[in-house]
Amino acid sequence: MNIKLNKKQTIAIASIAVIGIVLAGLILGTGKSGAPAAPTAKAEAHAEKKDEHGHEAVEGKLELTAAQAKAAGVVIATAAPGRIKTTVALPGEIRFNEDRTAHVVPRLAGVVEAVQADLGQLVKKGQVLAVIASTDLSEQRSELLSAQRRLSLARSTYEREEKLWREKISAEQDYLQAQQAWREAEIAVQNAQQKLSALGATGAAKGPLNRYEIRAPFDGMVLEKHIALGEAVKEDANIFVISDLSTVWAEIAVPAKDLATVRVGGKAEVNASAFDASAKGTITYVGALLGEQTRTAKARISLANPDMAWRPGLFVSVEVVSGEADAPVMVQTQAIQTVEDKPVVFVQVKEGFQATPVVLGRSDGKWTEIRQGVPAGTPYAAQGSFVLKSELGKDAAGHEH
Fold it and tell me: Which of 24, 42, 334, 381 could be 346's S-S partner, Cβ–Cβ 3.0 to 4.6 Å?
């Protein structure tokens, strides 16, 4: 089918075709010869940068004012040389100080008349724990009373014979016999008193002669109680266990490879496993033999326990100092964070902080040696570095979007 175009239609079609060809040429020319495209925000975020100290940065700087840093709990310190202690960590357990733990026995058989101490009670030295009626004690006190009366009579006889002898009325032999009887009576009284003292009793007891008061040997806590009112007890019965908990032992198991480090007189730090507490002590004992089953030697650290926080049976971790070494540069261990799987220290710069990669060396838990990355004299975030790491993560996430 033939379509005939007039002159005006032909001119319009030709004009449209020419305009399309010109626009296509302009578009293609601009794509080939235009300026390079600007980098994206993500590329900027990961571009390599260096701060004012010349440290290589893992990510962009974290801009914070001094007021913002203070509000975030950031504390600034300076990297400096020092000495780092090398330690050996060993498991342990708190135990009673056996030198201050007593198993109280009556030392005389009898019947319990009163019990004045309860389980868990704090008692003072000399405090009455229980009262026992003992026939043996009655006999001992009777013997002392008899000896004291014989001594009184012997002293009077001696004084009378001495006076008669000096006045030449009595013979010297009578005087010497009276003197000998007096000396023997004194010995008998001393013997009876020492017997009572060995039993923990006294001769000047108030009340019945068979009343026997069992007293605490020192200040401590009643840990065990095996006595009841009206009970008949033997002289060797273990009726109370008292321990002075003002000092305790931290007992550790030392492998053979660490015996050269753990020595008597060495310093150690004891850390509780169940709660946040630590204390320093001195190694007072290291066993000479290894256990057949464990192949370890026992060692003990003596600890002061004024607040009764170190309870026997508590599991602890003991760090024994094995030596000290000089570190050219060291920072507080809590200042070290991990960014992009690299250890970093947040160095203070003019605009804020910079996460600076570091190479770590030795550490004693509190201080860590920096072998490379931060020179001595560099200010860094000693506290609050975790907050800075969190803020840095927020900035990186914002750039990715």
Answer: 381
